[in-house]
Amino acid sequence: MISGKTKLLGVIGHPVEHSLSPVMHNAALTKLGLDYVYLPFPIAPENLEIAIAGFTAIGVVGFSVTIPHKQAILPFLTEISPIAQAIGAVNTVTRQGNGWVGTNTDVEGFISPLQTTYNQDWSQKTAVILGNGGAARAVVAGCIQLGLAEIHVVGRNLQKLTEFWQSWQNSPFADKFQVHDWQELPKLIPQANLLVNTTPVGMYPHVDQSPLSIEEMVDLPSGGIVYDLIYIPKPTQFLKLAEKQGAIPIDGLEMLVQQGAAALKIWLQQENVPITEMRQALKNHLGL
Fold first, then answer.
1. Model pLDDT, residue 153
2. pLDDT score of 279 more than 90
3. Is-catalytic flag, 70?
4. Which pLDDT does position 119 carry in this prediction?
5. pLDDT digits (tens, 9 = 90+) for 259-274
6. Which one from 5, 7, 70, 176 is the annotated catalytic residue?
7. What domains sit in the chain, N to C, each tagged with a CATH number?
8. CA dist list (Å): 98 to 64, 101, 264
9. Which residues contact 230 (CB under 8 A, 6 or more apart)?
10. Which residues are involved in binding shikimate (predicted)?
11. 47 annotated ligand binder
12. d(CA 153, CA 181)
């Protein structure tokens, strides 16, 4: 039952109607018996500042941040955690007094399935990351934490790629990766033990699209891991094509669960959150 005492959590994005975060967070809050509700807030980029002011006015406890706000949110925060500063992107914001504290749980979420289900010696492996937006920043940091030998970020827009590279120069992660124009992919794909899609290409409603064609993936190393941060549809066209090449697919669902659980711990200021219920709620919702 929602009442005048119910506390507000949510997710901001544009678009945001596809988000499954409300499904898993509300399942967790119900399991914990807390008087909270987690809502999706569609916020266009030009409305971000006024929306954050509105959140302050109505006493929102905290919120998740998704595309396209992960970097744009930074100027409106009073404090940014070291990991979020190093990455330059925020996905989790918490109310503190009259201000907002931003951090990034995407790194933890991204590496979780790679450390558990597919744990291996990454020190001899190469990662190829498609895209250079806010999500790519967490993936770069995750690959650095895992200790990959080589990390290559590939983008279509040379100006944005250059800006991406330059934006890391004051970070402890500077010079731990290389950037490449999309045309260099044919020489990178054969080295890709871990290939990650951080772009929105293939996300609902454009479910027939893929950032790479079957022809572009033909030289993927056998048994390599292909990871798509997108979780709707499941599997994406990208992962279907990768499987045809003998790759091991990972979709964004477990990353979603793990980064969400880490965020919930921060908002509720408690260590025990019902991850099993969060995962199961998502699977039930998706009919899995």
1. 98
2. yes
3. yes
4. 78
5. 999 999 999 999 999 9
6. 70
7. 7-103+254-286 (3.40.50.10860), 107-250 (3.40.50.720)
8. 18, 10, 20
9. 197, 200, 202, 203, 236, 238, 251, 252
10. 19-21, 66, 91, 106, 231, 259
11. no
12. 9
